[in-house]
Design brief:
alpha/beta, 7-stranded mixed sheet, 16 strands, elongated, disordered N terminus
Length: about 800
């Protein structure tokens, strides 16, 4: 099977910065280490001095990573001199002392330290005052620092930094040799000495400059691509290159240079082959790849076999040589190519665990270069994942940079780092939830087994969202998709998304909209289906002509998350919270209740069933109150509710019920049955429909007062939860309910008799903790407390 593991547009940020390790690890680095206390002898591990070791369950926590990042930033700032520069030395053939200042400033800016901070402002002035450095490593790092600084500056400062960026980029262009490589100093187009460490550093800087709008001649990328292709070993690896007396061209490939080499060929392809597979022709993609595919697979295979977080694999000078640079290089390839694993190793989790445990008490991992590598690894690696792209047997990646380019666009708009990731259905459902959206693109019908279909259904039933595309509008996939969707989600029908759909409105109101069909389960649209190609626009970076598709890409993950903060890579999907309802509850009446969904015409009555809301509530009631709740989920007509303790009525809109069934429901309540009614997702349409139904059958609807047992939790003979203060609501209601932090329930009365309770706000779906766009309901803990009070009240009432 062909595998495309592609770098995102953000690839070039800093991968090769680690290659400067040879050039910068000298007396000045050791002096800086001594000045800061150092961490000599702890490079391979040791007791953590950052955040107290491992988190719950033996795993590293995001909180520990954040603390390590902050400590590293403080260490770097503490090493800065009064004039804004860091301690320097002359390296190899460098005309002037340089390197540490460029690297430290870049690392601080990239990891979120704002240019308004004195350390950054002074460091920037120090960089600019140096003029032409004439040294590839330092010039490359300074160019990358400038590229990130200009994003956060304005006015004259930004113009000054941009001018300096262009000057450094042009120096690097002229410094390239005719063979496509770079040396420590300028080759000026000649065929002199080069190495792949200098080369990949220069390429990364030029890539970053290109992303910042600096025009780089095409021949620069063409030369370097040929060089890397020529030097790749048969096993997929790279070494230092031909021009090194100590490590000649016959040296086997090793980790640092292989990761850098793979990144470099992706950079060249990103600049030379932007439209791969596009535009579509007659429902098909262009067939491109060939040698590039083979080379990528070889290099990725080598990394998969040799990855370890604490050594530099196969380095000819020893496994401890440049292992910080190796780990950071792996991180760049893993992120940009969409890998979570190299082989079976979770590279970020293992790498972060190793680094957090190895960090010195002063925040360093040795000298300036090593600390920069580790800081960048931790910071970049923890960024949230926006989209998972599904790998399967078939044509899943014809537009191989589509989701990578979309993610890169979102990074620019949001001004924060994000990731994308490749997943397969071999992974557990929990890993499919690493991102809020699972992207499935197909140009031929995928070969999904029954087990695969079951897993996709489980993914959506646990809050996941799917984007399915018929790549190039493939007629075969269009036909397959209809059958596939019907087989996996038979309860609902595909319908066009209307112009008022949330994914077309927020945060970018779209004047032009893609043609999208969707499945809506009464709570949310969980599947989006594009019958026509949308990925070529992302693949070809059609930012101007088809900007609405990029904006829709932002809107889609915003819809899927209901604008919730995206979690960092090591954060739990639903982090543990302090229990705000810690006490036990108990029933003052029956300890066994039978509940049934009230069935009416259309699918609305089953809303929430796919999320197993009653199974979750039953477990909660059993643990907290010792009450057994048996829920009939198949749906029962009102005329068949005999023997049911609680009749549950829900929907997102119209309640299509024949008159005879309406009267049967009224009779059920009059004979002692209890009604629990709620508007799914807080639907205002259902609110109107239920109030109309209540009027038709002669029920009166009255607010439940705060003194009522349903609100106080002081149940006859039992105990529930206090809902008159401190109750928290979902995003859509948060501001509205600030002055009213209590539950909001409406009593259903038949004469003077309370026969049920109605909630205009969502309760049961809210107990799951899943997101639904615009949900008008409670936070999950509060929803469980409200539901518990309702059930316990019904149990006690039934007994009385």
């Amino acid at each position: 099977m062909r595998r495309w593991r592609l770098l995102s547009m953000v690839l070039a940020v800093v991968l090769g910065i680690g290659a400067v390790c040879d050039a910068l690890s000298g007396p000045a680095a050791h002096a800086a280490q001594k000045k800061g206390g150092g961490n000599k002898g702890k490079a391979s591990g040791g007791k953590s001095q950052t955040g107290g070791g491992q988190g719950a369950g033996g795993g590293l926590t995001d909180e520990q990573v954040v603390k390590a990042i902050e400590k590293a930033q403080k260490y770097l700032i503490s090493q800065q001199g009064g004039g804004g520069a860091w301690q320097e030395q002359k390296h190899h053939q460098s005309p002037v002392p340089c390197g540490h200042t460029e690297m430290a400033l870049f690392s601080l800016v990239y990891s979120g330290v704002h240019p308004n901070r004195e350390a950054i402002s002074k460091g920037m002035n120090a960089l600019i005052s140096r003029g032409t450095l004439g040294y590839t490593y330092a010039t490359s790092m300074r160019a990358m620092a400038y590229a990130h600084l200009q994003k956060k500056l304005s006015g004259a400062k930004r113009d000054l930094v941009r001018k300096a960026l262009i000057a450094d980029a042009m120096w690097l262009v002229q410094a390239q040799g005719s063979h496509g490589g770079w040396n420590y100093t300028s080759l000026g187009g000649s065929g002199g000495r080069y190495d792949l460490s200098n080369t990949q550093m220069a390429m990364l800087a030029l890539r970053e400059a290109a992303l910042a709008g600096v025009e780089i001649p095409r021949f620069v990328w063409e030369r370097s691509m040929k060089l890397y292709f020529d030097l790749q070993k048969s096993d997929g690896a790279w070494n230092y290159g031909q021009h090194n007396k100590g490590l000649g061209q016959n040296t086997p490939g090793y980790g640092t240079m292989t990761a850098a080499g793979l990144a470099s060929i992706f950079i060249t392809m990103d600049n030379l082959n932007l439209a791969s597979g596009c535009p579509c022709q007659n429902g098909r993609s262009a067939r491109l790849g060939g040698d590039f595919d083979r080379r990528v697979d070889l290099a990725l295979g080598w990394l998969g076999k040799n990855f370890k977080p604490d050594v530099s694999p196969k380095h000819p000078n020893g496994l401890d040589k440049h292992k910080r640079y190796w780990l950071y290089s792996v991180e760049r390839v893993g992120i940009a190519a969409g890998y979570k694993y190299f082989g079976t190793r979770n590279w970020y989790k293992e790498g972060a665990t190793h680094l957090v445990h190895a960090q010195s008490g002063n925040g360093s991992w040795g000298g300036i270069p090593e600390t920069c590598f580790c800081l960048l690894f931790l910071y970049k690696g923890r960024a949230p994942i926006l989209y998972n792209k599904l790998e399967y047997k078939g044509q899943w990646n014809n537009h191989r940079r589509d989701i990578s380019n979309l993610t890169s666009y979102i990074e620019k708009v949001k001004e924060q780092p994000f990731h994308w990731q490749i997943v397969s259905l071999k992974a557990p459902v929990s890993e499919l939830h690493d991102a809020p959206v699972l992207y499935i693109t197909a140009e031929t019908p995928p070969e999904f087994s029954d087990a695969h279909k079951k897993k996709l259904r489980q993914f959506t039933d646990t809050g996941g969202t799917i984007l399915l595309e018929a790549s190039c509008g493939s007629p075969e996939v269009r036909k397959w998709a209809q059958d596939f969707i019907k087989a996996v989600w038979p309860e609902w029908s595909l319908k066009p998304l209307g112009p008022d759909h949330g994914s077309f409105k927020h945060p970018h109101p779209l004047k032009q909209r893609p043609e999208i069909l969707g499945l809506h389960d009464g709570v949310r649209t969980f599947l989006f289906y594009a019958m026509d190609d949308i990925s070529c626009a992302w693949q070809m970076k059609s930012y101007a002509r088809r900007s609405y598709l990029f904006q829709w890409g932002i809107n889609l993950f915003t819809y899927a998350t209901d604008q919730s903060p995206l979690r960092a890579k090591l954060q739990a999907r639903q982090p543990k919270e302090k229990d705000r309802y810690p006490g036990a509850a108990r029933s003052g009446g029956r300890s066994n209740l039978r509940l049934a969904r009230v069935k009416y015409d259309g699918p609305g009555w089953m809303t929430g069933r796919n999320y197993r809301v009653f199974q979750g509530l039953a477990s909660h009631l059993s643990a907290k109150a010792g009450v057994s709740l048996a829920a009939e989920e198949k749906g029962v007509k009102p005329s068949d509710l005999g023997g049911v303790d609680v009749a549950y009525l829900i929907g997102p809109g119209e309640i299509a019920m024949p008159e005879a069934q309406k009267q049967a429901l009224k009779a059920y309540a009059a004979k002692g049955g209890f009604l629990w009614v709620e508007a799914a997702n807080g639907s205002t349409e259902f609110n109107g429909a239920f109030r109309k139904l209540a009027a038709e059958v002669g029920w009166q609807l009255k607010p439940v007062p705060q003194t009522h047992p349903l609100m106080t939790g002081r149940l006859p003979g039992g105990k529930g939860y206090g809902l008159i203060s401190g109750v928290q609501f979902s995003r859509s209601l948060r501001v509205l309910r600030l002055a009213r932090p209590h539950a909001d329930l409406t009593g259903i009365y038949l004469g003077d008799k309370l026969v049920g309770v109605y909630s205009a706000f969502d309760i049961l779906f809210s107990t799951t903790g899943h997101n639904a766009y615009g949900r008008r309901g409670y936070k999950s803990q509060d929803a469980r407390a409200v539901a518990t009070n309702i059930v316990l009240f019904a149990a006690g009432r039934r007994a009385g």
